[in-house]
Amino acid sequence: MTDASAAPTLVVGLGCQRGCPVSTLRALLDQALQAHKIDIYQIKALASIDLKRDEPALIELAEQLSLPLMFFSSEQLASYEPVLSHHSQIAFERTGCYGVAESTALALAEQLANAPAKLLIPRQKYAQATLALACVA
Fold first, then answer.
1. Using one digit for the tens of pLDDT, what is the confidence trace for 72-126?
2. pLDDT for 6
3. Is 62 domain-assigned?
4. Using one digit for the tens of pLDDT, what is the confidence trace for 5-36?
5. Which of 7, 32, 63, 74 could form a disulfide with 97 if both were Cys (CB 3.0 to 4.6 A apart)?
């Protein structure tokens, strides 16, 4: 007897600089998942900020992994500010959000599971990208 709802909802939030190569995002993702012993197939979706809606590397990564890619506005992400592990002034100046990866991961995990999410992997930075993984058990 398997209960699909027993599987945790795992969502990856991504932030990146304009023109960041997809290989950078993939390396960051693979590295983070490997370090935490999480299988890529456990990831339900990817998330980022709406300003990155047309970022080729994010779109390409979602296609490579056959995962949905969802976007959130800085207004939608504002409520997550108190729980962020890191507050980036640069990110705020550029996006209106203090932490794109963590905020978007939490927002999407909560939206998909309709329950409170927590960060399983706090903000990881690599080259021109940031990643965080949120989970709803």
1. 999 999 999 999 998 999 899 999 999 999 999 999 999 999 999 999 999 999 8
2. 64
3. yes
4. 567 899 999 999 999 999 999 999 999 999 99
5. 74
- pTM of full prediction above 0.70: yes
Tokens 């047309």 correspond to what residue?
54
Whether residue 72 lies inside any domain: the answer is yes
Give 119-125's long-range contacts (Cβ < 8 A, gap of 24+).
Answer: 119/83, 119/85, 120/10, 120/36, 120/38, 121/32, 121/36, 122/85, 122/86, 123/84, 123/85, 123/86, 123/99, 124/28, 124/31, 124/32
Question: Within a domain: residue 114?
Answer: yes
For the chain, what's the residue count? 137
- Look up residue 124 and give its two tokens: 């990881």
| Model confidence at 2: pLDDT above 80 | no
Structural domain boundaries enclosing 107 = 22-136
Overall domain count for the chain: 1
Question: Residue 48 falls within a domain, yes or no?
Answer: yes
Which residue's entry shows tokens 């932490």?
Answer: 99
Q: Tell me the CATH number at 80.
A: 3.30.420.180
